[in-house]
Amino acid sequence: MSLPILRLGTVKDVSRFQQHLSALGLNIPCDAEIIAGSESPLRQPLSRGEIKLGNRIAAQPMEGWDATPDGNVTESMLRRWGRLGSSGAKLIWGGEAAAVCHAARANPNQLVVAPHTLKGLEQLRAALLDGHRLTTGSADGVLIGLQLTHSGRYCRPNEHNKPEPRILYHHPILDRRLGLAPDSPLLSDGEIEAIIEDFHRAAHAARETGFDFVDIKHCHGYLGHEFLSAYTREGKYGGSLENRTRFLRKIVDGIRGDVPGLQIGVRISVFDTVPFFPDPARSSKGKLGPGIPEKHDDLIPYRWGFGVNAQNPIEPDLTEAMQFLSILQQMKIYLVNVTAGSPYYNPHIQRPALYPPSDGYQPPEDPLIGVARQMDATRKLKQQFPNLIFVGTAYTYLQDYLPHVAQAALREGWGDLIGLGRMALSYPELLWDSSTGNPVQHKRVCRTFSDCTTAPRKGLPSGCYPLDSYYKNSPQAAELNAAKVKA
Ligand SMILES: Cc1cc2nc3c(=O)[nH]c(=O)nc-3n(C[C@H](O)[C@H](O)[C@H](O)COP(=O)(O)O)c2cc1C
Ligand code: SF4
């Protein structure tokens, strides 16, 4: 029988946390003592070729749904980037998803890379460096990327309530969820090539505005990720892995030709699972049921997910992710950010949480299992590709024990950097504080309330409404609470 989910906020010490991991049978390394100062695994520099990083802390990209309607920078975005910098992280993985053109946006308030936003992009970078200097005293050894995205199936560029999906193939479950007719148009090869040029233009702009690298986003159900699962697409962008990576390879070739000196990284969902939904038998008015997978017994072998076992698509299979990393290595791309699944159709895989977002479901498993799944994938990939630089994801759910696990994971070679996602919204300096020996501020630790995901689902900007006073005291907080009551 499975154990009830233990609220980590009630676990008073690390030995109790370690016992809980053992009781769950989870292989998550966890140190009993935190090392502060230059001996801390989090404070070790890393140097590979031209990539030089001053420590092992990374800030994950975190979109805020708060750009102007034409995709330009706002005060709240400058504040968020300043806080990302104040995390002390020497690797800033993209700041937030920036659309390569207006039509590529996932929401009508997403940042766009375009001539009219260049000044704003420069300001974001400057705000980040200011925040970083305030925490660490110096901007040496910082590497700053911009995450370039096309939202594909999840495009919603103009109105919050108007999805405008651009798809590569028909998906038997996701098409139904999006209300797509069987004959709805697919992106043509010509349209794909125009998008590739948008990526080239955006990479050029990133370089001009001072970014060190761009991330060619391949995760979370967006276009780059959808290419990887385009098994059923005909033509040169679907079918074989060679065809499914043509989009990436063409983007990289163009950047290498036009923007020499710009580093490239890839954030990739290395495994997936079939879409989940709240179990209707266990849902009641106002309460979502636990997540269960959509019916898929008639879809075996499963050909609509990257990194899944085709005979049992609930199970990860890293075979193709390894082949993908070989391709990256051949292209001399060393920066890899490992993530999984999608926030739209399997959030428990992508961002393990105790409380579901409004369009999610109650956790179908202890969220620590979700953390362990992503950590284990990163460990296996790192073992196979020791020369690549791996950022690990999904650490936030560890809460007060994040520093203990981060330290142990780095020491044991489970990856090269620890990425902070949601924790960077509530308490960006957590790992800096712990590895400096500053007292950890437990009241600021993210408890995975998911308000930062629910707010955008209701058309509001994202932010840590429960713990960050900037959002807590905002008029949008009242709107969010009212929307939650109605839901
Ligand atoms: C509000 C919010 C916005 C996010 N925006 C992005 C994004 O723009 N790009 C991206 O690759 N991931 C994005 N993510 C995913 C995070 O980077 C990260 O993978 C996820 O939250 C799991 O890591 P964590 O456990 O540290 O939160 C977002 C997550 C949240 C909660
Ligand atoms: S709203 Fe704040 S506490 Fe809740 S998940 Fe997001 S960052 Fe964490």
C-alpha Rg (nearest Å): 21 Å
Mean residue pLDDT: 97
Low-confidence stretches: none
Name the ligand types. flavin mononucleotide, iron/sulfur cluster
Characterization of the model:
Helices cover 34% and strands 12% of the residues. The strands form four sheets. Strands 3-4-6-7-8-13-14-15 form an eight-stranded parallel barrel. The two termini are 32 Å apart. The protein has 487 residues and is of the alpha/beta class. The longest helix has 20 residues, at 189-208. It binds flavin mononucleotide (FMN) and iron/sulfur cluster. Flavin mononucleotide (FMN) binds at residues 60-63, 96-97, 147, 219-220, 267, 339, 351, 393-397, 420-423, 452-453, 462. Flavin mononucleotide is lined by residues 60-63, 96-97, 147, 219-220, 267, 339, 351, 393-397, 420-423, 452-453, 462.
Topology:
Elements (H helix, E strand, L loop, with lengths): L13 H11 L21 E3 L2 E3 L3 E3 L15 H12 L4 E2 L4 E3 L18 H19 L6 E7 L24 H5 L10 H20 L4 E4 L6 H6 L12 H4 L1 H13 L4 E7 L6 E3 L12 E3 L14 E2 L2 E5 L2 H12 L4 E5 L7 H4 L16 H18 L4 E4 L9 H10 L5 E4 L2 H4 L3 H7 L14 H7 L11 H4 L2 H12 L1
Parallel strand pairs: 3-4, 3-15, 4-6, 5-6, 6-7, 7-8, 8-13, 13-14, 14-15
Antiparallel strand pairs: 1-2, 9-10, 11-12
Helix pairs in contact: 2-3, 5-8
